[in-house]
From TrEMBL:
<dbReference type="InterPro" id="IPR002036">
    <property type="entry name" value="YbeY"/>
</dbReference>
<keyword id="KW-0479">Metal-binding</keyword>
<keyword id="KW-0378">Hydrolase</keyword>
<dbReference type="InterPro" id="IPR020549">
    <property type="entry name" value="YbeY_CS"/>
</dbReference>
<dbReference type="Pfam" id="PF02130">
    <property type="entry name" value="YbeY"/>
</dbReference>
<protein>
    <recommendedName>
        <fullName>Endoribonuclease YbeY</fullName>
        <ecNumber>3.1.-.-</ecNumber>
    </recommendedName>
</protein>
<feature type="binding site">
    <location>
        <position position="120"/>
    </location>
    <ligand>
        <name>Zn(2+)</name>
    </ligand>
</feature>
<comment type="function">
    <text>Single strand-specific metallo-endoribonuclease involved in late-stage 70S ribosome quality control and in maturation of the 3' terminus of the 16S rRNA.</text>
</comment>
<keyword id="KW-0255">Endonuclease</keyword>
<keyword id="KW-0963">Cytoplasm</keyword>
<feature type="binding site">
    <location>
        <position position="124"/>
    </location>
    <ligand>
        <name>Zn(2+)</name>
    </ligand>
</feature>
<keyword id="KW-0540">Nuclease</keyword>
<keyword id="KW-0862">Zinc</keyword>
<comment type="similarity">
    <text>Belongs to the endoribonuclease YbeY family.</text>
</comment>
<dbReference type="InterPro" id="IPR023091">
    <property type="entry name" value="MetalPrtase_cat_dom_sf_prd"/>
</dbReference>
<feature type="binding site">
    <location>
        <position position="130"/>
    </location>
    <ligand>
        <name>Zn(2+)</name>
    </ligand>
</feature>
<keyword id="KW-0690">Ribosome biogenesis</keyword>
Length: 159
């Protein structure tokens, strides 16, 4: 998968490299994400921008840590041949202030929390969800935990 990374309103850091590592690990953990034809747009931005996106596209008038906007159905993704032109999988946006606050509350590095949220967003783009049932949530959390372990990041759902 290819990433198109745009960084605005985040502190200086190795965010693009972090995103590349997270995407690579996600492709190892979820084969649907390993297709080299896929393109994902990843925006590191502010709470204010994510608030606008959340209100406009999700009818939720508040910021959130991560938003994902899939452009393919999971069946289309599963049928995507490995050869051919690039295909846009979707967009992900991370809100700096919310991510930083959550990382501080959890006592973890912002980089680790951002990697987790990138993986979380990518899994949403691949068709995974955690809203409709506890079983879905448990499956997605287990996949996230396994992918993050490849990056040397502790289980974000552990005690």
């Amino acid at each position: 998968m290819q990433l198109d990374v745009d960084i605005e309103d985040w502190p200086s850091g190795q965010w693009e490299a972090l995103a590349e590592r997270a995407a690579h690990a996600a492709g190892e953990g979820e084969p649907l994400l390993a297709n080299a034809r896929l393109i994902v747009s990843l925006l590191f931005t502010s709470d204010a921008e994510v608030h606008v996106l959340n209100r406009e596209w999700r009818d939720r008038d508040k910021p959130t840590n991560v938003l994902s906007f899939p452009m393919l159905e999971s069946a289309e993704l599963a049928e995507l041949a490995p050869d051919g032109p690039p295909v846009m999988l979707g967009d992900i946006a991370l809100a700096h202030e919310t991510c930083a606050r959550e990382a501080a509350e959890k006592g973890i590095a912002l980089e680790h929390h951002a990697a987790h949220l990138i993986v979380h967003g990518l899994l949403h783009l691949a068709g995974h969800d955690h809203v409709d049932s506890d079983a879905q949530a448990e499956e997605m959390e287990a996949l996230e935990t396994a992918i993050l372990a490849k990056l040397g990041i502790a289980d974000p759902y552990g005690e």
